[in-house]
Amino acid sequence: MRNAKRLACFLDGSWRRDCPPLSLTPAEVARVAPLLIGSGAAALGWRRIKDTPALKDCPEAQELCQSGRILALEDARLDGALEFVATRLNEVGIDPLIAKGWAVAHFYSSRYLRAYGDFDLCAPPGRYELAHETLMRLTPPGFSAAEAGDILVDCGPDLGHCTVDLHKNFGAAHMPPIETLHARSTPAKAGSADIRLLAFEDHLRFVVTHLLVHGAWRPSGLCDVAAMVEAIPPDFDWALCLGDDEVVAGWIGATIMVAHRLLGCRLDTVPSALRVDPPAWFERAVLREWEAPYAGRFRSIAASGLAKHPGQFLHWLRVRWSNPVETLIEARLPVNSPRRLANQSAIFARRLAKGSIEYLSSALPMR
């Protein structure tokens, strides 16, 4: 896992205004640059080496620079797109609640450093259908909500398209009910439009649990945790963030400690009770994911398409094997649980059974 450790070294403190010095060679930069670009962390990578003469002029560094510039332009475009979307929702009486991506970018020294590809929005309680109908009226010709979980919004010729991931709630990430989250949220602005932000305590919890639900494969997700932890205000309510579930509280504490160990996250604001090193396997699992932090490796055709594309079967199987972190969350296990392999097998069996039913229901009519 040498490249993953180099990647962690690259990202150490990358969200701060003043980054620590970087002690890597041009050859190591060449190995890590594709991982940074492929995971959406190119701007963070360039941020770390742009003031180091021995590194900034190598070809791979220039690729990071170019990718970082593209991300900066995209950030400005998406700013306008969010204002457009929120304005349309405001017109029907909805102030959308936004999380992750755009919202967490404010904890970085420059917002463009945190790349994101969509907007995670949640309508107020009881307003999901209205929000969905409003956004669907803004989709380009030919788009169907059945094609994807996200909604593609046409923001006009100047802003182009953006993707909205519209949620009824954040329950899949082990969050409180939307009624509770909305009541604790605070008003904010996206340009001239009204939006709402999760309470800091809820937002940190969500950033952690969302990272873990997806197996902690994206390095920028752990940077989000570190950037937010270092920005915790004096009146932060840790009891509210951790909640009443000791299992979820253990996940949050373990993730913060991994952010400290891998990325140098400062723990000045973290209670001593949370400063407990997680099991060694937890950090290893994160680093193993970072050896290939590419979203594309998780994509596969649906089981219903295997009859037409049998050559995709082995990849389809590989994608359905959960990593140890993902297993921890799906099986709702304590972070120090020793039963990961058995639970990985059980999760794989459930996914295989579900896919088999889907495959048979599509293949039999063809025959």
Query: What distance separates the N and C termini?
Result: 47 Å
Strand order of the biggest β-sheet? 3-4-2-1-6-5
Q: How does the helix and strand content classify structurally?
A: alpha/beta
Helix fraction bin: 40-55%
Regions with little confidence, pLDDT below 50 for 5+ residues:
none
Number of helices: 16
State the major sheet: 6 strands, mixed
Task: Tally the structural domains.
Answer: 2
Q: Using only CA atoms, what is the Rg?
A: 21 Å
What series of H and E elements makes up the topology?
A: HHHHHEHEHEEHEEHHHHHHHH
Mean pLDDT across all residues, rounded? 89
Number of strands: 6
Q: What topology emerges from the helices and strands here?
A:
Elements: H1 2-11, H2 26-38, H3 42-49, H4 53-56, H5 59-90, E1 97-99, H6 101-104, E2 119-122, H7 128-136, E3 151-154, E4 161-167, H8 178-184, E5 186-190, E6 193-197, H9 200-213, H10 219-230, H11 238-242, H12 246-263, H13 280-290, H14 313-319, H15 324-330, H16 340-366
Parallel strand pairs: 1-6, 2-4
Antiparallel strand pairs: 1-2, 3-4, 5-6
